[in-house]
Specification:
118 residues, mainly alpha, 4 helices, 0% strand, elongated
Length: 118
């Protein structure tokens, strides 16, 4: 579900980048809400499942710190892209980052399964 959420995010941002009508946006923004609903809780549930019991609070603190710190450069990059190249570039950047997150997460899962089975 986490990877599916990242892929949905990427697809929605790509669609927004190429949308040409406000009707498209009225359809796509609820899909963005679906992404938020299907990914945020699942990300936290996955973290709870892999974090050692004695370090769960630390794991959640680190998770939220990293997410918060990553939002600043992401927002700055998106803002510069939007200002210099337009909204399409900003949304395509977000789409590429969502796709990258899906690939990195899938690789992480694959590596963690290999370690467990070894």
């Amino acid at each position: 579900m986490v990877s599916a959420g990242f892929l949905l995010y990427s697809a929605v941002f790509t669609a927004i980048a190429f949308s040409s009508s406000s009707v498209h946006i009225w359809f796509l923004l609820p899909l963005y809400g679906v992404y938020k609903g299907m990914s945020e809780g699942n990300q936290r549930a996955y973290l709870a499942a892999i974090a050692p019991a004695e370090a769960k609070a630390t794991a959640f603190g680190v998770y939220h710190t990293v997410v918060g710190l990553a939002l600043l450069p992401a927002s700055l990059i998106a803002g510069v892209l939007w200002d210099r190249l337009g909204a399409k570039a900003a949304f395509l950047f977000g789409s590429v980052m969502g796709l990258t997150a899906a690939v990195v997460f899938a690789a992480f899962i694959r590596n963690s399964r290999k370690r467990i089975s070894a």
